[in-house]
Amino acid sequence: MPPLPEFRKLELAWWDHVDAACPHPVHSRLRYQWIRENTQLEYGGRRYQRTTSSIRAEDGVTRRGFLVIYRDVEQPQRRVTGVVQAGSGLAAVRSGASA
């Protein structure tokens, strides 16, 4: 089995971190707020800042996915990016269907 791409490793670590640290239930408004306010991840001896932005369809309204960027806090020029499809959710990230 080939090694996981770096983006997928970071996404898995991110969601494991959220599951362990966030006190709010999945799909709750409070959980989404917690995620927006807590954007740092320690992984592999590095500290990352996670940001996301929506990717919209040509109609400008329909959300097609999210661009996710992990920027190394100590070396900002080093970053890992990937795309997660809208509606794919954590199950897709964990199964390898996204990114």
Question: Overview of this structure, please?
Answer:
It contains three helices and four strands, in the order ααββββα. By secondary structure, it is of the alpha+beta class. The model has no long low-confidence stretch (mean pLDDT 85).
List its traits.
single chain, about 100 residues, alpha+beta, four-stranded antiparallel sheet, 3 helices, about 30% strand
Average per-residue pLDDT, rounded, comes to 85
Number of helices: 3
The order of strands across the largest sheet is 1-2-3-4
Main β-sheet, in a few words? 4 strands, antiparallel
Return the string of H and E elements: HHEEEEH
| Estimated radius of gyration | 14 Å
Q: pLDDT under 50 segments (min length 5)?
A: none
What is the SS-derived class?
alpha+beta
Question: How many E-type strands?
Answer: 4
First-to-last CA distance: 17 Å
Shape: globular
Strand residue content: 25-35%
Helix content: 25-40%
List the helices and strands and how they pair.
Layout: H1 6-21, H2 29-37, E1 40-43, E2 46-56, E3 63-72, E4 79-85, H3 89-95
Antiparallel strand pairs: 1-2, 2-3, 3-4
Short description:
The chain is α+β, with helices and mostly antiparallel strands and 99 residues long. It has three helices and four strands; from the N terminus they run H-H-E-E-E-E-H.
